[in-house]
Write a structure and sequence with these properties.
Blueprint (H helix, E strand, L loop, with lengths): L1 H21 L8 E2 L11 E5 L4 H13 L4 E4 L13 H6 L7 E4 L2 E4 L1 H10 L13 H12 L15 H8 L1 H7 L5 H10 L4 H12 L8 H28 L11 H15 L3 H5 L5 H11 L3 H5 L6 H16 L1 H8 L6
Parallel strand pairs: 2-3
Antiparallel strand pairs: 1-5, 2-4, 4-5
Helix pairs in contact: 2-4, 2-11, 5-11, 6-10, 7-15, 8-9, 10-13, 15-16
Bound molecules: glutathione (GSH).
The site of glutathione (GSH) has 14 residues, from helix 2 and helix 4.
Length: 338
């Protein structure tokens, strides 16, 4: 009996080591990689995920430029499984993250690089999302950076709204993960390049949304991210006043607006838009968001590509806050300065 047990343990251990060796990850350089050749069928292909902020940004950009592309939806654990650390996907991006834009078989890593690349390689007749004027271009770069999600976001929320987003996303992580079986999260415990993440999801799965206020570290991150987001939105509010709109650079719709659209969309998904731009707060931002949702790229790249688990997650947060005012106060930071 003991021998059988030991053989089973040795077998499982060998399998884990073998599988781990097949799923090695490493950081990838940002931008276009002409030396990497991937199989492709269409000029442009996009590996993306419905929930991922950066994927939404690349999709909005492709929609604005009206560039057709072959879509590969890659699951993250929040939408169903760890497809992003599967052997197949690691061949596309050994970094294990989405989105990846592929042009004629060559990947472009990092969404802020993808939108710049797509805008520069759009077919003739596409809208120009990069202004000719050098000063405006400089401003556009600033607002792209101010909205980008970079490495280690939780520690760098002061730098950009994109980095403040993951902290604000905790409630929807917590509600979406209800739909995901334990064994699927366990794949991440075994193979994910950042073990903290699957352990966080396991904790959310045990604790559920209602008990989030009792998780002091999560609440601290949420509070800090809210504060950081307010600062970024105050800056945007000022910019929209200075530029006189309707867009960040004024008359010219640009990559800066593409990048900010998805920040607002994430606030909608986590049922927090009203916390930042409701009841007369930041009226320029509120009107700006309304204008963004009227562009054809919004339904095309966001609404039509939503995922049932995201919709469940948003609904769950709304219902839980309605049923439990103390939870609402805690998740929305009602006692904070706005
Ligand atoms: N800075 C990168 C961020 C890429 C990234 O972190 N993507 C997330 C989704 S937004 C991801 O794929 N995470 C994988 C995981 O959490 O397992 C970009 O802008 O493309």
């Amino acid at each position: 009996m003991l021998a059988v047990f030991l053989i089973a343990i040795a077998g499982a251990g060998s399998w884990w080591l073998w599988e781990k060796s097949q799923r090695k990850t490493h950081p990838v350089p940002a931008g276009h990689q002409p030396d990497i050749d991937l199989p492709y069928e269409q000029e442009f292909e996009l590996y993306h995920n419905a929930l991922s902020l950066c994927s939404m940004k690349s999709r909005v950009c492709m929609a604005e430029l009206q560039i057709p592309y072959k879509s590969h939806h890659i699951d993250l654990i929040e939408t169903g499984s760890y497809q992003n650390i599967s052997r197949d996907f690691l061949k596309v991006n050994p970094g294990g993250t989405v989105p990846v834009l592929v042009h004629n078989g060559h990947p472009i890593y990092e969404s802020h690089e993808q939108i710049r690349y797509a805008a520069a390689h759009a077919p003739p007749g596409s809208a120009s999302l990069i202004p000719d004027d050098a000063k405006l271009r400089e401003q556009m770069e600033y607002w792209i950076d101010r909205s980008s999600l970079t490495h280690d976001p939780i520690e760098h929320g002061d730098e950009s709204a994109g980095n403040a987003v993951p902290g604000l996303t905790l409630p929807i992580f917590s509600s979406m993960i209800e739909k995901i079986p334990y064994w699927k999260i366990f794949e991440g415990v075994l193979f994910h390049f950042d073990r903290k993440r699957p352990f966080l999801f396991l904790m959310f799965k045990f604790r559920k949304l209602d008990s989030l206020p009792g998780l002091t570290p999560a609440m601290k991150i949420l509070g800090r991210s809210r504060k950081q987001m307010r600062t970024h939105l105050d800056a945007l509010e000022q910019q929209l006043k200075t530029s006189r709109g309707p867009w960040i650079l004024g008359e010219t719709f640009s990559l800066a607006d593409v990048s900010w659209l998805v920040i607002f969309e994430r606030l909608v998904q986590v049922d927090s838009l009203h916390v930042f731009v409701g009841a007369g707060l930041r009226p320029e931002c509120a009107a700006y968001w309304e204008r963004l949702t009227k562009r054809p790229s919004y339904p095309q790249a966001i609404l039509d590509q939503s995922h049932p688990t995201i919709e469940y997650g948003t609904r769950k947060i709304q219902q839980a806050k309605q049923a439990n005012p103390a939870l609402r106060d805690a998740l929305e930071g009602h006692r904070e300065a706005v």
